[in-house]
Amino acid sequence: MEDFYLIHCWIEHPIRPVDQLYTYYSSKELLPGMRIKVDFNNRESIGFVENVEKTNQSLEEIKNTLKIEIKPVLEVLDEEPLITEELHDLAMYLKDTTLSTTISCFQAMLPSKIKPISSKQTIVNEQFVKVSDEEYSLTPKQLEAFLYVKDKGEVLYKDLRKKYPNVAKALIDKGALIRYEKEKEATDIQVDMRSSKLPLSIEQKAVMDEFNHTKDDVYLLRGVTGSGKTEVYLQLAEEVLKEGKQVLILVPEIGLTPQMIERVSSRFGVGLAIYHSGLNPQEKYEQYKKVKNHKASIIVGTRSSIFLPFQNLGLIVMDEEHDGSYKQDSQPSYHCRDIAIFRAKYHHCKLLLGSATPSLESYARAMKGVYHLLKMEHRINDQLPTVSIVSMKDALQRGESFILSNALKDKIQDRLTKHQQVILLLNRRGYHSILKCKTCGEVIRCPHCDIAMSYHYEDKMMKCHTCGTSIRVPYECKSCGSREGFTKYGFGTERLEEELQKEFPNARLLRMDRDTTTKKNSHKNLLERFGNQEADILLGTQMIAKGLDYPNVTLVGVVNGDEGLTRTDYRSCEVTFDLLMQAAGRSGRSEEEGEVIFQVYDPTHYAVQCAARQDYETFFKFEMQYRHDGLYPPYRYFIAITVQSRNQKIVDETALFIKSMLVGDYKTIGVISLLKIRDLYRSRVLLKGTDLDSMRNDVRNLLGKEELKGKDIRIDVNPMVLD
Ligand code: ADP
Ligand code: ZN
Ligand code: ZN
Q1: DSSP letter, residue 72
Q2: What residues make up the domain containing 674?
Q3: Is 228 close to ligand 1, i.e. is its CB under 6 Å away?
Q4: Do 222 and 361 sit in the same domain of this protein?
Q5: H/E/C letters for each residue in 134-149?
Q6: pTM above 0.70?
Q7: Which of 221, 546, 549 has most ligand 1 atoms within 8 Å of CB, for mutation?
Q8: Model confidence over 91-149: pLDDT tens digits?
Q9: Nearest-ligand number for the alpha carbon of 486
Q10: Tens digit of pLDDT for each residue in 207-244?
């Protein structure tokens, strides 16, 4: 009798995620981690093999014991497991910690071309040629082409046709060359190797030595902006690469850090892979394969690159570790740092977190000795910029402009005269931020979200920054019907640009925000132009605050620097402080002394004061006190449970049910009504407590309840934003 294998697998279901194993049979032995095609409820679905069981029972006997119809595996999609043992364990860890379905974890880990859900996407093949073994009589030209292929072993058919236009096809027709198809591979990233390593400063050397001669798992490097953290990363990477191991350098948003890619690629040209959301699915798949086939040894990537199939990691660096983009909002809502810790442990390698403004959580862990703290307190050029604070309340009383104070204008003029460059940061795009009815005071809101829309001058439209809807400015107020018109409040980068043009008609301006960077590479191009000194002033949103290193910038102005403090989120002080610190870090990075101006409404706030003194430690103390008194993280854990639906009644009822079910050694806060987004009503229940495991357990049990079947519920463990 033939052997049978029972194949237990996770099924990818397009409508309702089912988080349990289903069983099929196969006459071939399969390996865990392979993908298969199966029939699930009369529809072809993809399964991930979890485990395989050999049986000597007959199919009939099996059906009788299991008392279910058991169907055959229709097709095996992989020759070798796609999910290695390590990645499998990681998926289980993800599922447990983020309370997500197994399949959603596998999905998060794979590039879209091989995600189960999109298996319809075709993988792109290319045609190659190689020589055949048989002998043929060839013309001299044909012989030349033949020898060319023989010498190379394998040549892209289209390249051969380009090189030998008239003979390539003839050689194939004759049988001298064999044409075949293969998956398209990533073309090597072209770089002209030019940078070599710099002699280290005393601080850099001390940090490297301490890192190399201690044996901890996680290190946190707090180094002021311009202290040379990147150089430390590169030199540590070089040592690891020499041992034949892989290095992963994580960066917040690739669009925002083109300089990091440039610095890594100019130091280590060969074996570099770059992985980020700006790549199309095919490009992502090619980079993924490069890592899987050992062709990449150093990888620079954003959040999702933490899931690439590394074989022997020797070092993980996470730059700007405090950055919000390391947290995924959608399910599984993981934090990249946690995954990095998991993978570093598996590969027995070190994880280095770096930032000028570490997240409060990480710094608190470093203080407790959970992470090994390393510090660099001095800039390479040994001078911090001088920061001055301008109170906008006072400036307005003196009759100055509410956009640019006289102090900032004077400094800009001074830099223009000296042919030095200026960066101006305003963390809001558009022209006006809100329009209010002159009669009833109602704000114009997005028809799909409850959020105020911004006026954009360029296309004379109102835009919703949450869902992207644009409308014309209405003729009459929707609320009271008045046709008196609207009063305009607030201002964004578009308005700032106009003001600068008026004030400094000869200055060359570059504006960088989401409206000016929609095209591929537009971001890189804008920065390149600024780097080549084709502009005097770069203005933009927080996009321009991060990681930029331009030696000729000697003035940075932050307009509306404390606007973030008006948000109610518990992290608003931290976010404001980070932004001010990062912005200040862009000024005076070379020989010329740098200056910074913060225009704020509350000059005495500790976030503003500490940022002005570039004093992280004092900010940390104040902020920890505030978190302690307010019972916020890192003193408490949060789990946010959000229900959403187009039907408000469903949302209300479900949220109430959830609240009633979650009673334990923690606080159950809510039901909190959130603003409608994209036509979805949303409500939230928030758990706050000290025992995260018991909170997780209760939520896990809750999610299994019959009453919640088919409901759209999102879980965020340790949410970074609460609005
Ligand atoms: P950070 O990442 O800490 O903000 P960078 O690594 O960007 O700092 O370094 C700031 C500047 O100092 C860069 O222009 C860099 O090229 C330069 N730099 C870094 N290390 C050295 C060194 N050892 N010697 C000379 N210049 C250095
Ligand atoms: Zn009105
Ligand atoms: Zn909207």
Answers
A1: B
A2: 637-717
A3: yes
A4: yes
A5: CCCCCCHHHHHHHHHH
A6: yes
A7: 549
A8: 999 999 999 989 889 989 988 776 554 444 566 677 888 888 777 788 888 888 888 88
A9: 2
A10: 999 999 999 999 999 999 889 999 999 999 999 999 99
